[in-house]
Hints:
Low-confidence stretches: none
Distance between the termini: 16 Å
Radius of gyration: 18 Å
CATH class of the largest domain: Alpha Beta
Largest sheet: 8 strands, mixed
Order of helices and strands: EHEEEHEHEHEEEEEHEE
Amino acid sequence: MVREGQSVHVGGFLGCGSPDAILAELVKAGAKGLTLVCNDTAVLDEKNARITGVAPLIKAKCFSKAIVSHIGTNPETQRQMNAGELEVILVPQGTLAERVRAAGAGLGGILTPTGVGTEVEQGKQKILLGNKAYLLEEALPGDVALLKAKKADKAGNLVYSKTARNFNPLMATACKLVIVEVEELVEIGDIDPDQVHTPGIFIDYIVVANEEAGV
């Protein structure tokens, strides 16, 4: 389902709320040439045996480009960037979230003052509204979203766990194909409609990953 050359949105914040089982399968499948859209490239600290989120995919060189807000906790990302092996596009975190949200809303982009007068504005259209300058930041749609939720029903309605929600709901709306990893799968009707965070209309595939089910 994930093919070379595709853009892949991955939920999570330094690994919290990332679909670890799905990501592990991508590494096993030898995925290459992907464009990553994610908040960060997670944590790669092999000395202390701490590897989170998309870090295993960075290590396996699954990506040719990464559109992220932070790479400071993954030295392998930095090494690949400096060696010319990985194109890294750094985007302010709020701008990244809004570009993904805009894609899900069917918008062409957003106007933001963030980055005006800095390197961020290079190559971008600057628009003056009143006496204030804004940058036009284009929407950021994706081919595939890989998400993590606490629970799903068999119609795909999702419930996230606290701050593990992070980028997941936005990315569910912004991509052509959405695959979600869940810890628990329940029957339709078992989730109170008022507790649904992402409606099932956005979800294409559900992967149950827990100690009992495996993957």
